[in-house]
Amino acid sequence: MNINTTKIISLLFFIFSAFYLYTAYQIQVFAFDENAPFNARTFPIYLGYAGLFFSGLKLILPDPNTIKVDHKNLEYKKTGILILIAIIYGATILKVGYFLTTSLFLFASYYFLGERRWILMFLLSFPFVAAFMYLLHGILDIYLRDPFLQSIGVMG
Amino acid sequence: MIEGILIGLTTALTFQNILMVMVGCFFGTIIGMLPGLGPMTAIALMIPITYGFDPATGLILMAGVYYGAVFGGSTSSILLNAPGVPGTVATSFDGYPMAQQGKAGKALAIAAWSSFAGGTLSAIYLLFMAPSLSKVSLSFRSPDYFALMILGLTAIAAFSSKGQFLKAMMMVVLGLMLASVGQDSLSDITRFTFDNMNLTDGISFVLVVMATFAMSEALTIILKRNDPTSAAKQVSLTELGSIKINKEERTKMYKTIPRSSVIGFLIGVLPGAGATIASFLAYGMERNVVSDEEKEKFGKGSVNGLSAPETANNAACSGSFVPMLTLGIPGSGTTAVMLGALLGFGVQPGPRLYMTNPEIFWSIIMSMYIGMVILLILNLPLIPYIARILAVPKNYLIPLILFFSVTGIYVMSFNNFDIYLMIGIAVVATFLRLYDFPMPPLILAFVLGGLMEENLRRSLLLSNGSWEFLWDRTLTACILATTILIVVWHIYKTFKKKN
Questions:
Q1: B460, B469 in Cβ contact below 8 A?
Q2: Cα separation of B218 and B196, whole Å?
């Protein structure tokens, strides 16, 4: 059997399905439902077995279309930075507020992707987010909590 | 039916709904044109906005985006040889050679007229077929629905791409697993939440769509930025040539359009098939029926070769609405996204939809006509201007996609846990995409997960736990036999290829 990344993913999925199946068996059901033809754990148990079956087949059967990914040409660094920016965005949005975090998120993303046209970067972050926020908050009536704008008196 | 058509026209012809079709077609065309971003991404980005409208308006907007994105995909196929959506891959076979010969404007005009004709003809087929299919589907029972969902999931896995059946089936199971997180619909028992309160209501459908399509698409584009295989050759966007179609070319199109629209519509109706298969089949059939002289031109800029897939992929779009509206089972990944959005509105598609919510049912069908006209009006004169959008630098495009994804999730829950969950799913999806694990089966399974469990529960309770319900009714047995046939055929093909 040829070991390639697809097989490794299948093996990981096999392990994940086994864990899912184990957790499915642990689902607590009501006492009167325990022997019912169908209860809260029935469907997940079938799914667990289905996961084991298909990933098991993928592991055993030959792989006619082996996918070769040239890792040298992949931009892991920039992708990683973008993911990190998104995580920081998630961590700060509730405390700082929508306007400032979203604008900084966009500005930082443009910068790390290699953009250096500062005026365009600014226009496509701060005023753009302000306009979008007005659309959501002012026109579509979707409330956006923003401690920063509240602290400077822009929002009530 | 006349009454229904009038209800639909009244709803579709309101100022707000016409505006929504226009906005949908415009944004759909723009997003569909950008390579890598298809109708699913376009619709996913629109979902948070549609929740501010009533269901009919929301769905009309999404239908406009769908048609626009499919047409937009053909623009990048013709100009860049980089199809925006899989359904327009066949368009590039003859569209791109025409563009290289300095006839890009003509190729875009042929694509626009063919799309218009294909979409309009299939909307007419849909108008007459949908009510009769609704009546037939009223006889469907829980076991039939359960079997039909199994067939739909197997079919989308089988058709997702060559040699990827098992990968697609793994994605189906993963989608169903994700759908099982949260409270059980009947007993309210929590499952797979690991005592996290944020997971009690389950994982939001919009979150999964945004993560697996919009966000993962953006991450994939950045990841593959330096990949020489994904670099597209570009035709000069300033020299599009004339958009006039001469008499000889029109005559060719008159013959191609009717037959391709029938193929497209019928393929679109099948659960799991959709625009990609429809366009390839129409292209293949067209090559077989034309004269030997015309056959020689295929792949070198043939009018028939361009018109056939363009007609078929738009016809398939309308066709894919049939199972969604009449059976509540999506015919494609895109309609699965729309089904999820409909469920979010509290509307349950199915045979009773056109009785309980006739304004939604008919207004969608009527909006298709209006959408087709608007697409044509929008695309023909604006072709040179729309084409310039292809030049938008990725440095701006990617952060904006990420912005719409993250904002879309945040405004729905105001909870940063959802943002983390979306990032996590998007990272896994990006990695899986690298190794050709298809995402549409995952979305279809995620949408159908709840309904599938519901129908299995009902069937098993009615048969007192016996699995005989699978072959008790002829209809259920036939549907399951078709499913088994598909599975066996694909496993056999995998073995045969290796040996």
A1: yes
A2: 29
Size of interface A-B (CB pairs under 8 A): 179
- The C-alpha of A140 sits at a distance from chain B's nearest C-alpha, in angstroms, of 6
Contact between chains at B191 and A114 (C-beta distance less than 8 A)? no
Q: Which residue of A has its CA nearest to B181?
A: A44
Q: Report the 10 Å Cβ neighbour count for B250.
A: 12
For the segment B312-322, the average pLDDT, to the nearest whole number, is 82
Ramachandran class of B81: left when φ > 0, alpha when ψ lies in -120 to 50, beta otherwise: left
Alpha-carbon torsion (B91, B93, B96, B99), positive or negative? negative
> Are B460 and A38 inside 8 Å of each other by CB?
yes
Q: φ and ψ at B258, to 5 degrees?
A: -60, -45
Contact B419 A102 (CB under 8 A): no
Separation between Cα atoms, residue B348 and residue B325, nearest integer Å: 9
Enumerate the residues of chain A whose CB falls inside 8 A of the CB of residue B427. 83
Instruction: Tell me which residue has tokens 């299948």.
Output: A10
Q: What is the ipTM of this complex?
A: 0.94
Residue B176 to residue A47, Cβ atoms within 8 A: yes
- Residue B137's pLDDT band (cuts 50, 70, 90): low
Convert B340-355 to b/e letters by CB count within 10 Å (16 or more is b). bbbbbbebebbbebbe
- Strand pairing of B190-191 and B182-183? antiparallel
Q: Do A43 and B453 touch (CB under 8 A)?
A: yes
Q: Report the percent of chain A where pLDDT is more than 70.
A: 94
SS3 state of residue A35: coil
At A88-125, the pLDDT tens digits run: 999 999 999 999 999 999 999 999 998 899 999 999 99
